Task: structure prediction
Amino acid sequence: MNTKEKILAANDLFYQAFNQNDLDLMRKIWHSGPNTECIHPGWGPLQGLDAILQSWSGIFSNPDDLQIKLSHVKVEVGEDLAWVGCQENLFIIQDDGVRASAIRATNLFRFSEGKWLLVLHHASSVPGSPVEKTISNN
Result:
């Protein structure tokens, strides 16, 4: 597996943890350094692994079924840093239908401890992205 494939695999692992509400898996993909940062859409920056994992724990406790499918994935690789830019196509499954929205994300990975670990996840709405819509069950 080449470096780009390893970074994409690490990125996929992050979204697998999200889609499976798996906090243990989420913990394994993040770097534990004090400068690790996560910015969820509409949130302020969270710094440090404890604050980041606490946020994911709260997101995972949401009763709605959330799923992310990626598109528009781009990878840039440096010596010990790499970033993945992508569109998160978010689907929220509720009793009255499915809400769909698109978010732009940047995931920055650092090569540490022999693997690529997440040091920054920044996700936000982007003007011009598809408008959130609800697909009715009726």
Notes: The domain at 3-136 is CATH 3.10.450.50 (Nuclear Transport Factor 2; Chain: A,). The chain has one domain: 3-136. The first strand starts at residue 37 and ends at 39.
